[in-house]
Write a structure and sequence with these properties.
Radius of gyration: 19 Å
CATH topology: Arc Repressor Mutant, subunit A
CATH class: Mainly Alpha
Structural class: mainly alpha
Strand content: 5-15%
Order of helices and strands: HHEHHEEHH
Number of strands: 3
Shape: globular
Strand order of the largest sheet: 1-3-2
């Protein structure tokens, strides 16, 4: 299904309403990350999430995913290795390649963050009417589907 840019029948107030609703969602999400930030900064946490998602990847792949240059990713990884959250090893297949994997403490941190995020979201959802929760779920599923298609087709705008 092709993605249409800014269709005429899309009311501006809908875009504004979604942006306004996203703010408290980001705040709830961010509060849940507060405990983790004692161990890792937001960029470091993002790097751990990326490595955890892939299982292992090389430094250049991490830099690409984070949208940074390899030297910045390398410095970020240095701090994560020093904190005991990430392992950095020379690849057995290519000695010029550095492979990154999560250490047990990094995995624990990500599990804690995920648990805290879910708890924070559950607290908010609990306060909603059942019909509103059902409508939200339906809308978020549709949103995620289209956003996923756009990401796959690299249709994000700057």
């Amino acid at each position: 299904m092709p993605i249409v840019r800014h269709p005429a029948n899309l009311p501006a107030d809908l875009v504004i309403a979604v942006a306004v609703a996203a703010r408290p969602l980001v705040m709830v999400w961010g509060r849940a990350d507060a405990i983790a930030q004692a161990q890792a900064s937001p960029p470091q946490l993002r790097a751990l999430v990326v490595v955890g998602h892939h299982g292992s990847l090389n430094l250049n792949q991490l830099a690409d995913e984070l949208g940074v240059i390899p030297s910045s990713a390398s410095r970020l990884c240095d701090r994560l290795v020093a904190a005991g959250l990430l392992d950095r090893k020379v690849s057995e297949q290519n000695r010029r390649e550095v492979v990154l994997t999560l250490r047990a403490e990094g995995q624990r941190l990500l599990k804690t963050v995920e648990h805290d995020r879910r708890d924070a979201l559950a607290d908010v959802l609990h306060g909603m009417r059942p019909g509103a929760r059902k409508a939200l779920l339906s809308g978020l599923e549709a949103f995620a589907e289209v956003a996923g298609q756009m990401a796959e087709q690299d249709q994000w705008t700057a």
